[in-house]
DNA sequence: TAGCGGTTGCGCGCTTTGCGCACAAGTCGC
DNA sequence: GCGACTTGTGCGCAAAGCGCGCAACCGCTA
């Protein structure tokens, strides 16, 4: 192991990390997995893998049918504890519903985690597009209005470091895959106060996002409205949606400041 | 420990179970938790708790602000893996959307896990009611149309054992809290082919559910439409919603039979 | 039927991991 | 300043978890 330095720390519980690795192996494949397949995916020995699988099954997170394992619905408990205790659903969702209703478009709230943004609340309206993207989904930050809005208002040094680490890939012909251009884009977003994306993540999908700040003015999340270019031209997004977005931003920030501990959930 | 018999099995990885226990401790409380608080909630020693917390933080599942820990959004990965690999979203969700749209009411798909049903897909329509209930939420099986529909079509002996173990509590004045009456209700559901609930879980909420079968005719889930008594009288639910429900049931069962491995995700 | 590459389950001895005690070092309130 | 409370951490020790390696069980092919 190359991160021996960490794995051998006195406080590090290797078995927990390994067990979670086994659990996450199931997110990589659709099919039911055998012990050896999981062992290969995780890089653990077959014997160790088996112990973890048996334990996870005993705990109810996995089910098995003749030597093949699948995730059970109990696995939802682990992830959804985040949502159920965060108050996001109760607090943010209704506000998002209102925004979504007034604009007749999909709206989402997301936070930045590493190179990706994670959706934490979402109200789909137009069902045709982006059905796959739900709460908990991750998308590359650099190709999303949400990611750009967060990055633009992150502290300069931290943002630079993050952008530096990005591996910009052209997901569509319109993706901004050049670091210099991307930095320029981020500057523009900061100047405007909002971010627009047109076909950068997926052809035809356009969105406009604004940052959400904590009471200390540091950015913690982003809010966007997402639509299809065939319905709203990208250049019209600002005129049509910026005002409702800014109103909703204010609503959410007010709601967050009333529950200070919730801010922790986004950025600690 | 009273289940020493299991914990001392050779295959049982105690550290993984303990670590997950620590992670789940955060679903019990809204606030940020200190090491000692988690230790108390889990029953582990403070030293052990600390090792797990540090490990989970290192892995990104927890964040911490001066000695207090909260779940991070990465925790969603664990639960999201279940949804993203199950194909439920791609397969069931669109069908549910259609049902929900034709009925103008909330529809949900849930599975039985122990004494509770877990929502695995859901399309809320009327936003006022039951906003808290989302994917991954658990509700007592005996007070829900979904639970009754599943139980009524579970194999007799298994269903009896489950009902036996239920601790029937009167959640509302209308909850069926008597075991004999509940068994009678289940027989009625089996005879009718659908289950109706009126104010049994929450006053004012009414719903009608049908079971979803695997290709071998065993029940694996239930589908319901949920509304408010002030909008639709409980006795009208059958006439209004049973036909669309049965049509959707057929659609879902057809879709499931086309992807046999998906059935495993519900019941193994 | 016998042989063979591919699985899988599992016993066993060894080592290391993770255990909890117990001490040190802060933090608050009187 | 001195208790009563937290929290971080070093240490020695038991056992928990490790992976090797064997045996059993497939489904093929001959």
List keywords for this structure.
homodimer; 268 residues; alpha+beta; Arc Repressor Mutant, subunit A; Beta-Lactamase; 11 helices; 48% helix; globular; DNA-binding; GAF-like_dom_sf (chains A, B)
Short description:
The structure is a homodimer of 268-residue chains. Chain A has helices at residues 4-7, 14-25, 35-42, 46-59, 75-86, 88-103, 145-153, 156-165, 179-192, 237-258, 260-266, and strands spanning 33-34, 62-65, 68-71, 106-113, 116-123, 138-140, 195-198, 205-213, 219-228.
Describe the structure.
Two copies of one chain form a homodimer. Chain A has 268 residues and is an alpha+beta fold. In chain A, helix 2 packs across helix 3, helix 6 packs antiparallel against helix 10 (237-258) and helix 7 packs across helix 9. In chain A, a hairpin with a 2-residue loop joins strand 2 (62-65) and strand 3 (68-71). The first copy, chain A, contains eleven helices and nine strands. A six-stranded antiparallel sheet of chain A has the order 6-5-4-9-8-7, sandwiched between helices. In chain A, strands 1-3-2 form a three-stranded antiparallel sheet. Chain A is globular. The first copy, chain A, has two domains: 4-72, Arc Repressor Mutant, subunit A; 78-266, GAF domain (Beta-Lactamase, 2-Layer Sandwich), CATH 3.30.450. At the A-B interface, helix 2, helix 4, strand 2, strand 3 and helix 5 of A face helix 2, helix 4, strand 2, strand 3 and helix 5 of B. The first copy, chain A, binds a DNA duplex (30 and 30 nucleotides) through residues 10-15, 34-36, 45-48, 50-51, 67.
């Amino acid at each position: 192991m190359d991160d021996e330095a960490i794995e051998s720390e006195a406080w590090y519980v290797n078995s927990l990390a390994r067990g979670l690795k086994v659990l996450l192996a199931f997110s990589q494949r659709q099919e039911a997995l055998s012990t050896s397949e999981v062992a290969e995916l995780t890089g653990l020995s077959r014997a160790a893998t088996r112990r973890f699988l048996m334990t996870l099954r005993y705990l109810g997170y996995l089910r098995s049918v003749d030597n093949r394992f699948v995730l059970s619905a109990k696995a939802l408990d682990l992830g959804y504890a985040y949502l159920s205790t965060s108050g996001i659903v109760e607090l943010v969702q209704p506000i998002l519903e209102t925004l979504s209703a007034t604009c007749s478009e999909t709206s989402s709230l997301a936070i930045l985690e590493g190179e990706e943004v994670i959706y934490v609340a979402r109200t789909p309206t137009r069902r045709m597009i982006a059905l796959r993207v739900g709460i908990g989904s991750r998308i590359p930050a650099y190709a999303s209005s949400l990611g750009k809005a967060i990055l633009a208002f992150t502290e300069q040094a931290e943002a630079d470091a993050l952008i530096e680490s990005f591996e910009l890939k052209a997901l569509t012909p319109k993706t901004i895959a050049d670091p210099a251009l991307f930095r320029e884009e981020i500057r523009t977003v900061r100047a405007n106060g909002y971010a627009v994306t047109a076909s950068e993540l997926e052809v035809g999908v356009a969105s406009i996002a604004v940052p959400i700040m904590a009471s200390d003015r540091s950015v913690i999340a982003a809010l966007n409205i997402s639509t299809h270019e065939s319905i709203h031209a990208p250049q019209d997004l600002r005129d049509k949606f910026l005002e409702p977005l800014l109103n909703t931003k204010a609503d959410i920030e007010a709601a967050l400041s009333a529950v200070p501990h919730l801010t922790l959930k986004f950025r600690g």
